[in-house]
C-alpha cells in the first residue's frame, strides 16, 4: 500500500476496498502481538512448573502469574513512550517498532532455559522479556486502532474499529488452539519436554510477514494533515496530562470505561480458563477446547455491538456489559462448578512443610463417604456443552464492553494528542485492572478458602465503572473527527 499522491481530506475519498486493506494490515500485526502476549498465559499451568522450583504447584502458579502480571503492569509506560512517538512521528512507525520488539521477545522465550537447567536465571530473564513485551504492547494497540479509525467514515467508526477489537480475542483464540493442536499430536511427555516451545518459535514467521505488510502501509490521512499543516503537538504528553480538561477526560475514560472493560475481558476468557483448570480440575485439553469454542462463537458479536454503537451510542452498550457482569458472574461460576461435575466445596490453605510456600488444594466430597472432604481429582465427566455455553455468555459480555471501546476513545480525544491520550487509560484499564484478574482471583481464593471469592475483584471494578461511567462518561458517537481536522485547517 503506497502513499497517496493527492492529500486525503475526507473519508469519502477512501474506498471500502482500501478500508479493508487498512484493517487487514493493522489487524494481522495486532493479532500476532496479542497471540505472542497471550501464549504466555495460555500455557500458565505448564510453564509455571518449568520456570519456578518444583514441589509446590500453587506457589509456582502464583509466581508465574505474577510474572505474567508484570507484562501488564508496564503497559501504561509503553503507552506513554510509544504514544508520544505516535503523536510526534506517526502512527505507522510507532507500531512497526512495537511489533518487532514483541516478536523478538516471544522468539526468545521459545529458546529460554528452564529452572532445572539455569536455576533462578530462568525466571529473572523471563521477567525481563515480559517487561519489554509489555512496553511494546502498550504502544501497539493504540496505534492500530487509531490508524483504522482515522481512515473510516465518522458514522461507521464503531463498526470498522470493532474488527481491530476482534484481534485481542483472536490472538488468545489462536494461542489456545495452537496448544490444543500440539497436545493432540504430541504425547504429554513430549509436550512437557519441548512441545511448549513450538508456539513461541512459530510466531517469528508470522511477525516477519506482518512487518512486510506494514512497511508498505501509508501514514494515517488525518495525522498526515495535522502534521503538514502544523497542527500536531510538539509536546503531546504535556498537552495531554498537564492540562486539566484533557487529564480529567483521561481519568473519566479510565474509571468510567476501560477499567470495567478490562476486568470483564480478562474474567470472561482468562479467569474462566484458570478456573476450569486450577479450581474445577477440568482436563487441560478439554478446558482449552471449551474456552476456544466459546471465543469462536462470540467473536462475530464484536462487530454486532460495534455496529450497534454507531446507532444507539457507545456508552449504553459498555455500561450494560459491566452491569450484566456484576449481576451474573456469581450464578455463572456456580453453574460452572455444577457442570464440571467435581463439586469442589472449598480450598484447604496451608504451608508446604518443606518449602514453606502456600499450598492450595481444592476439596470435594468423598464418593465413598459424603461426610468427608478429600482433595479434588480431575473432573471425571464434565458437561462440555453447558460449560461452553457458560463461558460463551461471559465472552458475550466481553464483546459488549470491548466492541465499542476503540471508537469511544478515538472520539474522546483531539487528533494532535490522540495516541498518547487514547493509550494511557486503555492500558491502565486493561493492563493493570484487567491484567491482575487471574493473579488476584487465585490469590484471594487461597486467602479465603472460597472458590468464588476470586470474582469479588472483577465484580467490584465492573460495578465502579458502571456507576462512574453512567454519571460522568459523555457519549461520543456524534463526534466527527474528520470535521475537526477540516475546520482547523480552514481556520
Description:
By secondary structure, the protein is mainly alpha-helical. The protein has one domain (11-490): MFS general substrate transporter like domains (Growth Hormone, Chain: A, Up-down Bundle), CATH 1.20.1250. Helix content is 74%, strand content 5%. It contains 22 helices and three strands. The chain has helices at 16-42, 44-51, 57-73, 75-88, 91-111, 115-118, 121-149, 157-185, 188-193, 198-215, 221-228, 236-241, 244-279, 284-298, 300-312, 314-340, 384-402, 405-412, 418-434, 437-448, 456-472, 481-490; strands at 344-351, 358-366, 369-375. A three-stranded antiparallel sheet has the order 1-2-3. Helix 1 runs antiparallel to helix 10, helix 13 packs antiparallel against helix 21 (456-472) and helix 15 (300-312) packs antiparallel against helix 16 (314-340). The radius of gyration is 23 Å and the shape is globular. The model is unreliable at 1-6 and 351-357 (pLDDT under 50).
Give short descriptive properties of this protein.
mainly alpha; 22 helices; single chain; disordered N terminus; Growth Hormone, Chain: A; 491 residues
CATH architectural group: Up-down Bundle
Report the radius of gyration as a whole number of Å.
23 Å
Question: What class, by secondary structure content?
Answer: mainly alpha
Helix-residue proportion: over 70%
**Looking at CATH, which topology would you report?**
Growth Hormone, Chain: A
Largest sheet, spatial ordering of strands: 1-2-3
Distance between the termini: 32 Å
Number of strands: 3
Give the uncertain stretches in residue-range form: 1-6, 351-357
Q: What amount of the residues lies in strands?
A: under 5%
Task: Please work out how many helical segments DSSP would assign.
Answer: 22
Largest sheet: 3 strands, antiparallel
CATH class reads Mainly Alpha
- Count up the domains: 1
Question: What string, H for helix and E for strand, traces the elements in order?
Answer: HHHHHHHHHHHHHHHHEEEHHHHHH
CATH superfamily (homologous) name: MFS general substrate transporter like domains
The 3D shape can be described as globular
Mean pLDDT: 83
Amino acid at each position: 500500500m503506497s502513499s497517496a499522491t493527492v492529500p486525503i481530506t475526507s473519508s469519502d475519498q477512501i474506498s471500502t476496498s482500501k478500508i479493508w486493506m487498512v484493517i487487514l494490515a493493522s489487524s494481522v500485526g495486532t493479532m500476532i502481538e496479542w497471540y505472542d502476549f497471550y501464549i504466555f498465559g495460555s500455557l500458565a499451568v505448564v510453564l509455571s512448573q518449568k520456570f519456578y522450583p518444583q514441589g509446590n504447584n500453587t506457589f509456582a502458579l502464583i509466581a508465574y502469574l505474577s510474572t505474567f502480571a508484570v507484562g501488564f503492569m508496564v503497559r501504561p509506560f509503553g503507552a506513554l513512550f510509544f504514544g508520544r512517538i505516535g503523536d510526534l512521528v506517526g502512527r505507522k512507525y510507532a507500531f512497526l517498532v512495537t511489533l518487532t520488539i514483541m516478536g523478538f521477545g516471544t522468539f526468545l522465550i521459545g529458546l529460554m532455559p528452564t529452572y532445572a537447567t539455569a536455576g533462578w536465571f530462568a525466571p529473572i530473564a523471563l521477567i525481563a522479556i515480559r517487561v519489554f513485551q509489555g512496553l511494546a504492547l502498550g504502544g501497539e494497540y493504540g496505534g492500530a486502532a487509531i490508524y483504522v479509525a482515522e481512515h473510516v467514515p465518522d458514522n461507521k467508526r464503531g463498526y470498522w474499529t470493532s474488527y481491530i477489537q476482534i484481534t485481542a480475542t483472536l490472538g488468545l483464540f489462536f494461542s489456545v488452539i495452537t496448544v490444543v493442536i500440539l497436545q493432540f499430536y504430541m504425547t504429554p511427555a513430549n509436550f512437557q519436554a519441548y512441545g511448549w516451545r513450538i508456539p513461541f518459535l512459530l510466531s517469528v514467521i508470522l511477525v516477519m510477514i506482518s512487518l512486510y505488510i506494514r512497511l508498505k502501509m501509508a501514514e494515517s490521512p488525518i495525522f498526515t494533515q495535522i502534521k503538514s499543516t502544523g497542527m500536531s503537538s510538539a509536546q503531546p504528553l504535556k498537552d495531554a496530562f498537564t492540562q486539566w480538561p484533557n487529564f480529567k477526560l483521561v481519568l473519566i475514560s479510565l474509571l468510567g470505561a476501560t477499567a470495567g472493560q478490562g476486568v470483564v475481558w480478562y474474567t470472561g476468557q482468562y479467569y474462566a480458563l484458570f478456573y476450569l483448570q486450577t479450581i474445577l480440575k477440568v482436563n487441560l485439553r478439554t478446558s482449552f477446547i471449551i474456552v476456544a469454542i466459546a471465543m469462536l462463537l462470540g467473536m462475530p458479536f464484536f462487530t454486532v455491538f460495534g455496529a450497534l454503537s454507531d446507532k444507539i451510542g457507545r456508552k449504553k452498550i459498555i455500561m450494560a456489559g459491566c452491569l450484566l457482569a456484576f449481576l451474573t458472574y456469581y450464578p455463572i461460576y456456580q453453574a460452572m462448578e455444577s457442570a464440571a461435575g467435581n463439586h469442589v466445596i472449598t480450598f484447604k490453605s496451608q504451608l508446604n512443610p518443606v518449602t514453606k510456600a502456600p499450598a492450595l488444594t481444592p476439596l470435594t466430597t468423598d464418593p465413598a463417604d459424603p461426610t468427608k472432604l478429600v482433595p479434588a481429582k480431575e473432573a471425571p465427566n464434565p458437561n462440555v456443552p453447558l460449560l461452553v455455553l457458560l463461558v460463551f455468555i461471559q465472552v458475550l459480555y466481553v464483546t459488549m464492553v470491548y466492541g465499542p471501546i476503540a471508537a469511544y476513545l478515538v472520539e474522546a480525544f483531539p487528533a494532535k494528542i490522540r495516541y498518547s491520550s487514547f493509550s494511557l487509560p486503555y492500558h491502565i484499564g486493561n493492563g493493570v485492572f484487567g491484567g491482575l484478574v487471574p493473579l488476584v482471583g487465585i490469590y484471594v481464593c487461597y486467602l479465603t478458602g472460597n472458590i468464588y471469592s476470586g470474582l469479588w475483584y472483577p465484580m467490584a471494578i465492573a460495578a465502579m465503572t458502571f456507576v462512574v461511567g453512567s454519571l460522568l462518561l459523555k457519549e461520543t458517537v456524534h463526534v466527527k473527527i474528520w470535521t475537526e481536522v477540516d475546520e482547523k485547517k480552514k481556520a
